[in-house]
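Predict the 3D structure for this chain.
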Amino acid sequence: MTVSECRPEDVPDLVASAAALFAEDGGRHDPFMDTGWPAREGRAYYADLVEDPACLCLLADGGGGHLVGRLRRPNPLRPGAVTAELESMRVAPERRREGVGSALVNAFLAWAHEHGANETTVQAYAQNASALNFYRTRGFRPVLVTLART
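Done. Predicted structure below.
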């Protein structure tokens, strides 16, 4: 299994993986999620990220999944935090339990460290127990809780 940084020619594969994530995760856990967004807006959005040095876009070989991460601008309320945010990640269902997710996260954490991040963050739906467990076993812990009433 190989994880590689996306090149401009990889954007369609990145969009396809992101679209699947929107459908599988957002569509299941968020009644307001626009699951059609990747098809409409994804190509331009992800093409910009691939070219942005403050962003990391990774693909696992064979359609195994993706990860998008970015460095966040300094926050004047938390001046000591240099934050790298894991914006989105998906592992194809048929590739789960093969180490794809770990390889993607490990590459992201190494990139974040190389770019001076002293904090990494990720958001996951509270109802997605498997995602929460995955991230906890990789050292992430809850810091903030967002409560919503719909």
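The chain has a mean pLDDT of 96.
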